[in-house]
Design goal:
- This protein has a seven-stranded parallel sheet, with helices on both faces. A five-stranded mixed sheet has the order 1-15-14-16-17, covered by helices on one side.
- It is globular and about 85 Å long.
- Helix 5 packs across helix 7, helix 13 packs across helix 14 and helix 14 crosses helix 15.
- The chain contains 15 helices and 17 strands.
- With 453 residues, the chain is of the alpha/beta class.
């Protein structure tokens, strides 16, 4: 019978945490893009790691060689497609030295149980500082003034600028980079507002930032700076309709991803002087050979320099090297894109519960003769202090290993359950009846019959 449930959470199936064991044999790592030498030296210094460097490989070449490796490290140049992932029969992990993962097929990696890691914070300061450089360049016409002096002119009146002190900066996406930009601009006496539906209002208050809906932010901001990833919801986030909502004379800065902006709509707004200017480090197609924006004088361009400082190059190279090595050694997935990260200490603490959950999933699989319609995982007592999601993943792993011929692990278990049409319910309670902790798994079939362990 179900135990007393204090909180009940139903959620869409997504991939969550991963727990793996140290590989007793040599782990091979392919470095497919150039990373800092310190990162390479770090990997070479680790026991049980074999490092190979193959730069500039196309898809066909990668498909040919990837089967020899457990891990691959890339930057932005090399594209890890579904075909490459399918060819990587021993591949466990893809490491991205940098924040963007547009060049990696995350869905295919998840389906094949491959962890994808990135380094979201390693180049955050560098990217934030480039944003500030663009903000100031726009305000004081620095690129045009530089070219003017070089051509022999001395036209001071042509380059009357705008003070940023007292102006309003609107930040779209209040992650690590957005928060650094906000802090720096507050120090320059700017009023900072932001839009991010995934950030709690208490965080805004702590940071001294005014939370606004996107349309209100666009209407109030003298400068708008983008710091969000490209998703189905954010692609073309600034389309013609939203650009038209921007404050007259406002300036737009994008050091995040080019696909966030409809470039034709931005061109039209700049050409008509509905907004005063834009500074772009990224473009929907790079390099932007055919972009209509290239014909305008009120745009400042840089060639995707967000992470291009010596400090950032070293930081991302070292960080991804440590993360990949650590995952192969301990199973700790830091900055995982397709699962929830668990620290080494937390992994050690919950390991007995993870093992129990997987065994309960196996027991359920042997008690029923068909795929369940739903699976409910209930954690009670002291164990309720643990994040239930990793336990649910382990339960699914134990269940599906007995039902599917495809390999199942903690990365792809939720995806496979969703594909099987298994609804998932996670429940917590601080009451465990006569035990300190209990873990219960309940499978329900289409006729409503339940099997509980």
């Amino acid at each position: 019978m179900p135990l007393g449930i204090g909180v009940r959470i139903e959620q869409t199936l997504n991939t969550h945490t991963c727990c793996s064991h140290k590989n007793p044999i040599m782990n091979t790592i392919l470095i497919a893009d150039q990373i800092d030498e310190l990162g390479i030296d770090y990997l070479k210094s680790q026991p049980d790691l074999q490092i190979d460097i193959h730069l500039g490989s196309n898809e066909a070449e990668l498909c040919r060689i990837i089967r020899n490796y457990q891990a691959v490290i890339v930057r932005s140049a090399t594209v890890i497609t579904r075909a490459v992932i399918q060819a990587g029969i021993h591949l466990k992990i893809i490491g991205r030295a940098g924040i963007g993962t547009d060049n990696i097929d995350i869905k295919a990696a998840t389906e094949h149980g491959i962890v994808v890691l990135n380094t979201p914070d390693a180049n955050a300061i560098t990217t934030a500082e480039l944003t500030l450089a663009h903000l100031l360049s726009l305000s004081r016409h620095l690129p045009h003034a530089d070219r003017s002096v070089r051509s022999g002119e001395w036209s001071r009146s042509r380059y009357i600028g705008t003070e940023i002190s007292g102006k309003t900066l609107g930040i779209v996406g209040l992650g690590t980079i957005g928060r650094i930009v906000a802090s720096r601009c507050q120090g320059l006496n700017m009023r900072v507002v932001a839009f991010d539906p995934f950030v709690n209002r208490d965080v805004f208050e702590t940071l001294g930032i005014v939370p606004l809906e996107l349309n209100d932010l666009l209407a109030q901001s003298d400068y708008v700076s983008l710091h969000c990833p490209v998703t189905a919801k954010t692609r073309n986030l600034l389309n013609a309709e939203r650009i038209a909502r921007m404050k007259p004379g406002a300036r737009l800065i994008n050091c995040a991803r080019g696909e966030l902006i409809n470039e034709q709509a931005l061109h039209d707004a700049l050409a008509s002087h509905a907004i005063a200017g834009a500074a772009l480090d990224v473009f929907s197609s790079e390099p932007p050979k055919d972009s209509p924006l290239l014909s305008l004088d009120n745009v400042v361009f840089t060639p995707h320099l967000g992470a291009s400082t010596n400090e950032a190059q070293t930081a991302v190279g070292m960080e991804i090297a440590r993360q990949v090595s650590n995952y192969l050694e301990t199973g700790e997935a830091v900055n995982a894109v397709n699962l929830v990260s668990i620290s080494k200490e937390e992994l050690a603490r919950i390991k007995p519960y993870l093992e129990l959950a997987e065994k309960l999933g196996s027991v359920i699989a042997n008690l029923i003769d068909h795929s369940p319609e739903s699976l409910e995982v209930t954690v009670c007592g002291r164990a309720a202090e643990i994040d239930v999601r990793p336990l649910t993943v382990s339960t699914l792993t134990g269940l599906l290993k007995h039902m599917l011929s495809a390999p199942v692990n903690q990365v792809n278990a939720r995806h496979l359950a969703e594909r099987q049409g298994i609804a998932l319910v996670e429940a917590l309670s601080d009451h465990a009846q006569e035990y300190l902790s209990t873990l219960q798994v309940c499978a329900k079939d289409h006729d409503g019959e339940t099997t509980v362990v």
